[in-house]
Task: structure prediction
Amino acid sequence: MKYLGGDANAGYHNKKTGFRSYFISFEGGARLELMNKPDVADADKTADRTGYAHIAFSVGSREKVDELTEWLRADRYEVKSGPRVTGDGYYESCIAAVEDNLIEITV
Result:
């Protein structure tokens, strides 16, 4: 919400199972659901793995990629790569966020 301008709902909490869920809504209609359940095992996350690898957010320009990357770095998030032009022509950076999940910031 702080970095990408989303709005969160009040959330849901199942006190019996410990499950929590929040929806973050973005301009244009995209929504992201964040879920947590305390008793789920969390294996090490490497960049090259099967299943979920990363989530990407388009911020509209190279300048915004640069600005957001530096803002996150200043707030002590680990910048894994970039900002840079990738081999397939995208301008992006990659951040290790909560629980080492990778967030790609792109034009």
